[in-house]
Amino acid sequence: MSDDTARPCQGCGASIYTEHLDTGIAGYFGGKLLCPHCLEEAEAKGDATSGAKSTDDLEVIALADEEPVSPKGKSETHFKAIGGEAQASAVFDDGGLKRPLDPKNPAATRCRTFHAKLNEGAVAFMSRQLNEWTDSSPDVTIKFATSTIGIFEGKKADPHMILTVFY
């Protein structure tokens, strides 16, 4: 799976990206690929089918060029998509941008785009990602935002809500 390709959650249909699997917030449980919301529910209920493996039981493999990446242990919640400074830079790195942030200027200097399928779970996850990003970035002052509905191409064309935040 390439970094820009999303797989659907087999529980609710939310988009699951490689970074969700790499950080351990989404994964396989009971033989199904589940988003963080569905994974947490399944683990709480103990819905695993016999012989199925959770993400903790899977062996980590690496390509020859890369160093092995070990899966993170489960934190208190599976929603920690960008939960600490080390993770925040891996998920969204704006360190290479030249224009400095200016919270006092009314004009925006940067933008960030979020998107989600049009279902309750996916939109809730996108909201949580946005809130965690702003919480982990105290220097960010949101100037304005736009939203639209558009088609994201993948295995099948799905309508998504696209939210662009200017800061």
Describe the protein's topology.
Layout (H helix, E strand, L loop, with lengths): L6 E2 L6 E2 L1 H6 L3 E3 L2 E3 L1 H10 L39 H7 L19 E7 L2 H17 L7 E9 L5 E9 L1
Antiparallel strand pairs: 1-2, 3-4, 5-7, 6-7
Could you give a quick summary of the protein structure above?
This protein is of the alpha+beta class and 167 residues long. It has four helices and seven strands.
Structure description:
The chain is an alpha+beta fold and 167 residues long. It has one domain. Helices cover 24% and strands 21% of the residues. It has helices spanning 18-23, 36-45, 85-91, 120-136, and strands spanning 7-8, 15-16, 27-29, 32-34, 111-117, 144-152, 158-166. A three-stranded antiparallel β-sheet has the order 5-7-6, with helices on one face. The longest helix is centred in the last third of the chain and has 17 residues, at 120-136. The protein is globular and about 50 Å long.
